[in-house]
């Protein structure tokens, strides 16, 4: 038995016969093309994996951005309330200070 695989395009009895130069060149071109196509398939598979990884990163980033936005809004609201409390305390302090200054002067002027 021959070590070459069966080729239906070679007539019977010529299975082990040497191929002519033209057939050999065509076979080399086919082999080169098959090699290029295998490389392309490998690259497409890697690209698909990279795209999936990139999509996962994008999803994670969007989730992180949403969490950051919620946290920033909470901090903004807390700071607004803190600012309002400070303004209210300042207003109350000014009113009390004015009351301390105005009431005694009014009482003194009414006695005179």
From TrEMBL:
The chain crosses the membrane at residues 86-107. Residues 1-24 are annotated as: Disordered. InterPro entries: Synaptobrevin-like, Synaptobrevin/VAMP, V_SNARE_CC. The keyword Coiled coil applies. One of its GO terms (biological process) is vesicle-mediated transport. The keyword Amino-acid biosynthesis does not apply. Residues 22-82 form the V-SNARE coiled-coil homology domain. Keywords: Coiled coil, Membrane, Transmembrane, Transmembrane helix. GO terms for cellular component: membrane. This is V-SNARE coiled-coil homology domain-containing protein.
């Amino acid at each position: 038995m021959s070590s070459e695989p069966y080729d239906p395009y070679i007539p019977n009895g010529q299975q082990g016969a040497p191929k002519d130069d033209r057939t050999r060149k065509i076979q080399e071109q086919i082999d080169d093309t098959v090699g290029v196509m295998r490389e392309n398939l490998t690259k497409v598979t890697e690209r698909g994996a990279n795209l999936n990884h990139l999509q996962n990163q994008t999803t994670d980033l969007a989730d992180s951005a949403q969490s950051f936005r919620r946290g920033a809004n909470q901090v903004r609201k807390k700071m607004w309330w803190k600012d309002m409390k400070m303004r209210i305390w300042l207003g109350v302090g000014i009113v009390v200070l004015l009351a301390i200054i105005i009431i005694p002067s009014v009482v003194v002027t009414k006695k005179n």
